[in-house]
Amino acid sequence: MNLPEATNFIEQFINEDLASGKYESRGNEICVRFPPEPNGYLHIGHVKALCINFAVKEKYDGKINLRMDDTNPAKEDYEYVNSIIEAIKWLGFEYDNLFFASDYYDKLYEIAEKYIADGNAYVCDLSAEEITATRGTLTEAGKESPYRNRSVEENLKLFREMRAGKYPDGAKVLRAKIDMSSPNLNMRDPVIYRIAHVPHYRQGDKWCIYPMYDFAHPVSDALEGITHSLCSLEFENHRPLYDWVIEKAGFAQPVPRQIEFARLNITNMLMSKRYLKKLVDEGFVSGWDDPRMPTLVGLKNRGVPPMALRKFCADVGVAKNYGVVNIAQLDECIRDELNVSAERAMAVTDPVKLTVTNYEGEEELDFEINPTDGSGKTRAVKFTGSVFIDRSDFALEPPPKFKRLFKGGYVRLKAAYIVRCDDVKVGADGRVEEIFCTYFPETRSGSTVKSDIKAKGVIQWVDCKYGVDAEFKSFKPLLTDELYPDQDYAERLNKDSVSVAYGKVEPYAANSAEGKSFQLMRTGYYKVCPPENGMARLSEIVSLKDNFNK
RNA sequence: UGGGGUGUCGCCAAGCGGUAAGGCACGGGAUUUUGAUUCCCGCAUUCGUAGGUUCAAAUCCUGCCACCCCAGCCA
User: Fold this and answer.
1) What number is the average pLDDT over the span A520-540?
2) Is strand B in 7 Å reach of the CB of A522?
3) Protein A65 CA to nucleic acid B10 C1', in Å?
């Protein structure tokens, strides 16, 4: 199932809770949730959270909810919720329920009134700037708001008026009454409701006050009966508030427990929604699904198999250390998946003509579709004795250990014959223009005839008569020097991030369905794109390992 | 300088008092009609650091050092 095994410390907490008998009243059912805010597309960083949560669900035979954490109407939209649902489906995950925090607005409001009634919340008239100014600093306590001790009646009246739309944005907020001198800034009377005369994509104009994350999230978890609320490290400081909110709301035991883990970082991969959105908005990429994007649609569009992403997360594991995984590890997972699933095809990205001078006519040869899947299946490849080979497969002056072709040398044309290079036509500029060879009929691929002729290497080729013109596009990753570049990042990210080569490819690959992936031998894994003016087009998913050029 | 976290191989990461898993990367070898794959083999006497407790410590205690997070009416 490709689920992370290393959920170790998370499992430890869950096991503790289970052992304590905390969940006996609920049949010991473990319930988790994946709570994205629908304000952007899911990216590879989210896959980690998804994998961890689904691993827990699987391990404990529990339940998992997908919950849209949509409490900020200014940023959210259906476009995003749909994309999130599709991305999760693409990864092959099946959640038990789809919920929306916005469906809890009534309940949330009710709890807010309870807070007021219990003296745990108050309406504050301070401006945002004033609240910031009175919050104190890391080392100094904050000052209590002059509105902190309003009566329950007044608070209730004011809060209801806020809801009724009597006040403009920013005029008032509802604050939790906790401790202005807490060393944890999150406990210094955090705002839990703000006024925003902004229509909500699902609730329309029903509300003009919206709950804040710190209030809505714990309550949502509790309402759904979540037992373990897994989130990233930056919420550690919020945990006391998380617990406070649930306790004061009066939820019955067992209440959810928040557990934090380190989020995923990958070298050379930008993982901040904010920057990704900027790349899209400013047109540096074609969209959220641009193949250079680390979004799931981007990765999908590039041709990355979903299971490669899952395996990657499983390999990387879960911990609380801040870490940056080398992208080589991701690439390896992608190759690993494609190695057994992608058919092989021959292509040359820098063609040089090779003529077999003693060959006449044409024939069909058997070409193994995928030597690693154990099927042994072959397909036919036409050969006319006149082919293109890659420039890098021939050397005027072969370097040591060179296994490919050079004058006087022997090499096997993959799936065909061993040939010997007799002559080379070199242009005035020193470039090889054509290679002339002799072939040996008894060395035909698959032949049982014994032959003393041996070749050290095998090279690929595309027949001159049948080969198809092709464009090979490669995407370099969106490079960053640091994780969150301050400026010029978009220019740098975009610079040279696409490169194109033109060459020849077998008609088999050229005529394959769009989206099919091939391993272009000794080059990389490529995805078939729709052809344009008679030219086949393939785009790189990930390059192959190359021990020679290293 | 307050609080909350984290420090184990180049990069992730197990380990929870009994003498350092695994993956990626790297190096070497074997097989190979992809210099791919596969397959072997190697790769931390050492766990941020300094002390202490113990027959025994990466694991317990103490001090120190480094890095990350927190002062949104974002999530």
Assistant:
1) 96
2) yes
3) 39
